[in-house]
């Protein structure tokens, strides 16, 4: 038997076995976890207050226990680095909101218990705007803000 035929039979057998196990329910294809937890309504909001409401809050209190690191001037609005960390206890989520973007909520991270509440990402900004770090801790929302000037647009710019 030649090597190519053996390889073809082996591959076919593996695919048949996998198909049988899927049909029997032993393996279940799972839709991406993010799709199950994605809050479509929150990512469609156009104001900070609406975003907080869609995330389950009524308002957010200013907090000095949140550190938002972002450039004062972003030379390219398509890739603005943002970091958020906090020392608040019982943090369950950290979100980044950008006031003047078409959709206010730029990113949202669930923070599992026992995880260090520190996120780093890059966001798009269409124009100079206030950036808000929104932290949910112990069922309440806290926020800190910083204005970032954009010299070259990112969102539609």
Automatic annotation (TrEMBL):
InterPro entries: SoxY (IPR032711), SoxY_sf (IPR038162), Sulphur_oxidation_SoxY (IPR016568), TAT_signal (IPR006311). It comes from the Bacteria. Residues 55-155 form the Ig-like SoxY domain. It comes from Pandoraea terrae. Gene3D superfamilies: SoxY domain. This is Tat pathway signal protein.
